[in-house]
Predict the structure.
Amino acid sequence: MSMQATIESKIQESLAPVHLEVLNESSQHNVPPGSESHFKVTVVSAEFDGKMLVARHRMINKLLATELAGSIHALAMHTFTPDEWSEKNQQAPKSPPCLGGAKREQENQ
């Protein structure tokens, strides 16, 4: 099973999201082609009702502890209640361009 599918499955099983999007953004970073190391997740779940942002992120971190201890290098999380998602016009922020690692070094030369 791919890392993306693993993330989707674990979140789906535990949080019963009304919306879930898992994007592999590894190709936007300085990693080998086909890598599964950088992800963006957008999760909309009633499980987040009454919880602060840090508590929501801790829920995701706990679900994905094994993956985060292994091959996942970065995980951008956007967590919303159904009402918040509606207020955001059902859109999560776009990820900024990667300027880390070798890309930054090349730009500074």
